[in-house]
Design a protein that fits this description.
elongated; 15 helices; two-stranded antiparallel sheet; 338 residues; mainly alpha; binds zinc ion
């Protein structure tokens, strides 16, 4: 049977395949709407209990073979859709997914249902979560750093728990959760992830180092400070922004020192090799003892913060060019590198 499905897909041309996908998605949406309508009706009658199931959930998982998660979701959506029946058509035409309705379910009231459904239509699940955070902002959770259970405490796949020592301090041994980002309010995001002891120690040390600036030691302040510093130092975009920022009048920007980001860029551009080219077009092959040279000399107003004005030269060619510009005597005292 599986092979039959595969064979029928394999025979389709690209255009046909895309058409089929679209059509199947449409059918699936209509099916979902019909399914939750039927489920809601069965849930409202005593039908399932009569059939020997303790609850609608019991019926969905045992009889319909839905996963527990899907069962919960479908039941919640079926119940809210019976209350606000415009939900059926929104699911049927693909304006809302079951997941979105499930997220919205507890926020829908007779006086806001139309407005909320209107705003949620066509939105991704992430955007619907944002909407819910806006409708019902929650206070930030307090910072939390706690030890996860060690690997030996995590129950094995067959469900057998390892023996616990009397001194263990982990009330419930669970595997670490995957990284999560949860919106608690429109502009607030809750981060959650498990990390090694190394990060914990780093954070504790950072709190000490930044105590003068952030005496409360909030993790948000600490991480933001470090993230900004890192991006300022390493993000090419941030460096470009800094580069384009107006120069300060105290002249600190007009320095002979070549900024680190320009050094890196010039090094990459020049391939770590002297850029001197003879009149015959032969490029110097020197790669040792390279120096950053201002094409328009700094003394003549050449900028240090423009990569176009900086190039790599070997010591010998740097001296040669300096002599050509400033004269032999001005540069003859230059120290010859070892
Ligand atoms: Zn050279």
């Amino acid at each position: 049977m599986t092979e039959h499905f595969w064979q029928s897909c394999k025979g389709l041309e690209d255009k046909q395949l895309l058409f089929e996908l679209k059509e199947l998605a449409r059918q699936q949406q209509r099916c979902s709407a019909l399914f939750i309508a039927c489920l809601g009706e069965a849930d409202a009658r005593d039908l399932l209990q009569k059939e020997g199931f303790s609850t609608t959930f019991d019926y969905c998982t045992r009889e319909l073979k839905l996963s527990e998660r899907d069962a919960f979701r479908n039941i919640r959506v079926a119940r809210i859709a019976r209350k606000y029946q415009q939900i059926y058509s929104l699911i049927a035409d693909g304006s809302l997914t079951l997941c979105s309705v499930d997220i919205l379910a507890s926020h829908l009231k007779p006086d806001n249902v139309d407005r909320i459904l209107d705003r949620a239509q066509g939105k991704s699940v992430r955007d619907v979560e944002r909407l819910v955070a806006e409708l019902s902002p929650k206070p930030d959770r307090p910072d939390l750093m706690r030890r996860e259970a060690p690997a030996s405490m995590i129950p094995s796949a067959n469900g057998a728990s390892p023996p616990r020592s009397s001194s263990e301090s982990f009330p419930s041994a669970k595997p670490p959760r995957p990284d999560r980002l949860i919106f608690s309010a429109p502009t607030r995001v809750h981060f959650s992830f498990a990390a090694d002891e190394e990060l914990r120690n780093c954070v504790l040390r950072l709190k000490e180092l930044l105590w003068h600036k952030f005496p409360a030691g909030r993790l948000e302040d600490i991480f933001l400070e470090i993230a900004k510093q890192y991006l300022n130092a390493h993000d090419p975009q941030a460096q470009l922004d800094n580069h384009n920022a107006p120069r300060r009048s105290n002249g600190s920007f007009h320095s002979r020192n070549v900024p680190k980001w320009i050094r890196k860029r010039v090094w990459r551009r020049d391939g770590g090799q002297c850029t001197f080219v003879s009149q015959e077009g032969r490029r110097c092959s020197e790669r040792k003892g390279l120096q950053l040279d201002h094409v328009i000399p700094w003394a003549n107003g050449g900028p240090s913060n423009d990569p176009e004005n900086i190039r790599l030269l070997c010591w010998s060619h740097n001296q040669y060019i300096s002599r050509a510009v400033f004269g032999f005597s001005a540069v003859s005292k230059a120290k010859i590198p070892p």
